[in-house]
Amino acid sequence: VFVETSVHRVSRDKALLGGGPHCHIVAYPIEMDLLTQARTFWRKAFDEAESEFETTHKKVIDVDAKGGVRRAVPKGFPYIYVDFGLGGGYAHVVDDVAEFPKEFAQQTMAGMCEMTVLDRAYTGKEEYKDVCKDLK
Questions:
Q1: pTM to 2 decimal places
Q2: pLDDT in tens, 82-98
Q3: pLDDT, position 69
Q4: Rg (CA), the chain
Q5: Is residue 4 pLDDT above 80, yes or no?
Q6: Which terminal Cβ of the chain has fewer Cβ within 10 Å, N or C?
Q7: What whole-number distance in Å separates Cα of residue 106 and Cα of residue 102?
């Protein structure tokens, strides 16, 4: 699962000096059987992300693999986009950047995997180093 976030948290002064929005992409490896549930989980998370009365945009935007998020979300809008194995996904336009949770994607993935944000994949440094050696 790839999560692309472009939520602008730049002050007006910095924006005038050229400090504009930046995109942040994180890849979350999950098991294949969770991938089928991921679509439903993320759709529900986007539906509950912001208040029903405050939102002016469509809550969940279906994005196909061919057009991508650039075709679905207007330029300059803050958004979060989730791609499921490079086969399309969902986008959500953020209306109130100040109120939107900073770790929304991380918390959603942790909830989907039935973990907390503080859970770690490896309990110690040695276990992590062994897995890294196996990858090489």
A1: 0.74
A2: 998 878 899 988 888 77
A3: 83
A4: 17
A5: yes
A6: C
A7: 9
